[in-house]
Design goal:
single chain, 7 helices, five-stranded parallel sheet, 322 residues, 30% strand, alpha/beta, 27% helix, FAD/NAD(P)-binding domain
Length: 322
């Protein structure tokens, strides 16, 4: 028979938002339970050096997430290696089914499932992830000062990444499979006026190549979409900028979403369209997508969940007295 676990606050997801929510909810004596999900630690586990986390001049992404997990546990948050597969949002307490078969029952939910960068799915792309292949210019652009960089994509994400990378790179080649960009006109105008950026039309990434010991990118091979001709472009960094997708599988048909599936929260809040359900981090954030902003929203979600449960308890006492 499946085990049933009951908790006042269930946190779904284990990136900066989830672990920070765990710290704050535990300090509020809510005895939270955190289910890590399919990718414990989130996107930072695929990043090497992190230089924009306050208090650390440099820290390895996986190490930072190990520390966050340990902090949450030390405060009293129980961390469980499991995956929530479905949630019944129609009634409270919320009933959550899991991959392990355990049923989690919670008075309040904090959703911190994050977002995932879209990838092309090439074996060579996978091989060099974190070692020259990235999907976050603001995270990793700093490491390519004076180097030649390639950006793949043609929408707002690609153009914004290319423009940002000119702060560091000696040259940025923007590779797009069409002969015009999908990005906003004002962004296109900035890109075409930037002398460091050179668009390469009608091409797609065919292969990333580099060294094996140590792992490092040396260049890319791109294919002309019409002729099939292969062109070799030397570079030290490859940024896949074809967009991000929020990990909203649990809620996309239930909670209000916008901007391609990001969960809508109330102004200056993490409260969603369902009372008792809060969302934090990249699941809601289509603008910043930074570890520090995700952590801030995790704090907000825990404080708001604490307030929600306290007010609910006060209302129940009033009703009982009446």
């Amino acid at each position: 028979m499946a085990e049933t676990r009951k908790t006042r606050v269930l946190i779904v997801g284990s990136g900066p938002a989830g672990y920070t929510a765990g710290v704050y909810a535990a300090r509020a004596m809510l005895e939270p339970l955190l289910v890590q999900g399919i990718e414990p630690g989130g996107q930072l586990t695929t990043t090497t050096e992190v230089e924009n986390w306050p208090g650390d001049t440099e820290v390895q992404g996986p190490d930072l997430m190990v520390r966050m997990e340990a902090h949450a546990k030390a405060m009293g948050c129980e961390v469980v290696s499991d995956i929530i597969t479905s949630v019944d949002f129609s009634r409270r307490p919320f009933v959550c089914q899991s991959d392990s078969g355990t049923v989690y029952v919670a008075d309040a939910l904090i959703l911190a499932t994050g977002a995932r960068a879209k990838w092309l799915g090439l074996p060579s792309e996978e091989k060099f992830k974190g070692f020259g292949v990235s999907a976050c210019a603001t995270c990793d652009g700093f490491f390519y000062r004076g180097q030649e960089i390639v950006v793949i994509g043609g929408g707002n994400t690609a153009v914004e990444e290319a423009l940002f990378l000119t702060n560091f790179a000696s040259r940025v080649t923007l590779i797009h499979r069409r002969d015009e960009l999908r990005a906003e006109k004002i962004l296109q105008d900035r890109l075409f006026k930037n002398p460091k950026i050179e668009p390469l039309w009608f091409h797609q990434l065919d292969e990333v190549y580099g060294t094996d010991n140590p792992l490092g990118v040396e260049g890319v091979r791109v294919k002309h979409v019409k002729t099939g001709e292969i062109t070799d472009i030397p570079c030290k960094g490859v940024f896949i900028a074809i967009g991000h997708a929020p990990a909203n599988e649990l809620v996309k048909d239930v909670l209000e979403t916008h901007m391609g599936g990001y969960v809508v929260t109330k102004p200056d809040s993490t409260a969603t369209s369902i009372p008792g359900v809060f969302a934090a981090g990249d699941l809601t954030d289509h603008i910043y997508r930074q570890a520090v902003t995700s952590a801030g929203m995790g704090c907000m979600a825990a404080l708001e969940a604490e307030k929600f449960l306290a007010e609910e308890g006060a209302d129940a006492q009033v009703q009982a007295a009446e």
